[in-house]
Write a structure and sequence with these properties.
This protein is 67% helix and 0% strand. The chain is mostly helical. About 9% of the residues have low confidence.
Length: 141
């Protein structure tokens, strides 16, 4: 199946809507990944354990649809963004927060990997597709 890469390598493709990024080289993606990882390390400290545990409970609730979980994740990211310094670009901070939350949830409850990963990709496709395309284009220039 698809692989979850955390080192900036492009291994799979977007699912849940088949969003395609314009062709780009691997170095551009590595640069973006390094920048996002650095921001993620900074934001990681801001996320409290209770927030992660609340998300874990939602992911574990079999009665909730993927749409309901995606909406909850979106609310949590919007709440967390309020604590982020305003000098950081909001879309970038929200994108990184979603990835950091994904990492924290999977580290807490590894068997949720597939559901959390699929939900995060769906959330990112909906909320940040244009931003991601613009970010890739900006680095290429």
């Amino acid at each position: 199946d698809d692989e979850l890469q955390t080192d900036g390598n492009r291994s799979g493709h977007f699912r849940n809507g088949d969003v395609e990024l314009p062709p780009t080289n691997e170095e551009v993606l590595r640069i973006i990944a390094a920048q996002l990882a650095e921001i993620g390390d900074q934001l990681d400290k801001e996320i409290q354990e209770r927030v992660v545990n609340g998300l874990v409970q939602h992911f574990m609730n079999e009665n909730l649809s993927n749409e309901e979980i995606t909406q909850h994740m979106s609310r949590v990211v919007r709440e967390l963004i309020q604590a982020i310094p305003s000098d950081m670009e909001q879309e970038k901070a929200m994108l990184v927060l979603a990835m950091v939350l994904t990492k924290k949830i999977v580290n807490t409850v590894p068997f949720l990997l597939r559901r959390v990963f699929d939900t995060t990709v769906n959330y990112m496709n909906r909320q940040f597709h244009n931003y991601i395309v613009d970010m890739v284009s900006a680095v290429k220039e």
